[in-house]
Write a structure and sequence with these properties.
The protein is of the alpha/beta class. It folds into two domains: 171 residues, Protein of unknown function DUF3822, N-terminal domain (Nucleotidyltransferase, domain 5, 2-Layer Sandwich); 87 residues, Nucleotidyltransferase, domain 5 (2-Layer Sandwich). The protein contains nine helices and 14 strands. A six-stranded mixed β-sheet has the order 1-4-3-2-5-9. A five-stranded mixed β-sheet has the order 12-11-10-13-14, with helices on one face. A three-stranded antiparallel β-sheet has the order 6-8-7. It is globular and about 50 Å long. It starts with 5 loop residues before the first strand and ends with a helix.
Length: 282
């Protein structure tokens, strides 16, 4: 079985909690992670994150099948199971223009039709927007077989639904980092100005995208707040490159309502703050 990149699960105590807990999973093109938590007390019991070294000989489907078979806590029965898809083939549509029959043509117009996936959609709570996205059909089938009573969303939908719109009167840029992609949202005056994922290899790639976004949206990088979360460190080359252009850089914290039981004391709080925030709204 693929070894977990992050394995933050206590050696004792979780076995007694898991059957009354919620399993929240997040999957993207080359990673899978989950947290186990109590929805009522908002206590986090554990987290694991896997990174997939994808090749023609071993596609993501094989990795995921292996995890579902061999990861002890993915095989255990739980009270609730939920899946967050974080695939890049995704767009937002105003609710007034949303029509189910248009979903596939819209996704293929934006992202092409080389990948024959399953097109899904959902209304975003608290917004007059809908999310339309494409996921690998075989991945969705496997997860439905394992978690027959599970609920499914896209990351975009939940990320918007957990935000406080009243606090977005001034421009702000959020960037969430993964191993080889980052997710950007830009808000101003209660409005989503941009919501998009970008692949990157070097810090310069990230800076290029963010400066282009600021230019296109008429934002001054020396004035607009840049909020960072995910896998980015303060002493990294990426952070230092960002700080050359953005003067107001902040790291996200764990939401105050979440009780982590000291599990993340040795890990920067912004690493997993996004999925913790999503856990509060599902």
């Amino acid at each position: 079985m693929n070894r977990a990149a992050f394995d933050i699960i206590p050696e004792e105590g979780l076995d007694d909690q898991i059957q009354q807990s919620t399993l929240l999973m997040e999957i993207g093109e080359n990673y899978f992670r989950y947290i186990i938590y109590d929805k009522h007390t908002q206590k986090i019991w554990g987290l694991r994150q896997y990174h997939f070294d994808i090749s023609p000989d071993k596609p993501v489907l094989e990795y995921l099948h292996d995890l579902l078979q061999n990861d002890k806590y993915l095989a255990e029965p739980v009270k609730d199971s939920m899946v967050i898809y974080n695939y890049c083939d995704c767009c937002l549509l105003p609710e007034q223009y949303f029509h189910v029959e248009s979903n596939k043509p819209i996704i293929e117009l934006i992202y092409g039709n080389a990948h024959k996936g399953l097109i899904l959609s959902e209304k975003i709570k608290g917004w007059d927007l809908c999310t339309v996205y494409r996921v690998p059909r075989e991945i969705h089938t496997l997860l439905q077989q394992r978690f027959s009573a599970g609920k499914y969303w896209h990351f975009y939908s939940l990320w918007l639904s957990q935000l406080d719109r009243k606090s977005m009167q001034m421009p702000v840029v959020h960037a969430i980092f993964y191993t080889d992609k980052f997710f950007v949202t830009v808000f101003d005056k209660n409005t989503v100005m941009l919501m998009q994922s970008y692949s990157y290899q070097t810090p310069e790639d990230v800076v290029y995208y963010l400066l282009s976004i600021c230019k296109n949206l008429d934002l001054d990088p020396e004035k607009v707040p840049l909020h960072l979360s995910g896998l980015v460190d303060k002493d990294s080359a990426l952070f230092h490159e960002l700080y050359k252009y953005f003067l107001f850089v902040e790291y996200a914290n764990m939401p105050e309502k979440v009780h982590t039981n000291g599990l993340f004391a040795e890990i920067p709080s912004h690493y997993f703050s996004p999925i913790m925030k999503l856990a509060l709204c599902v």
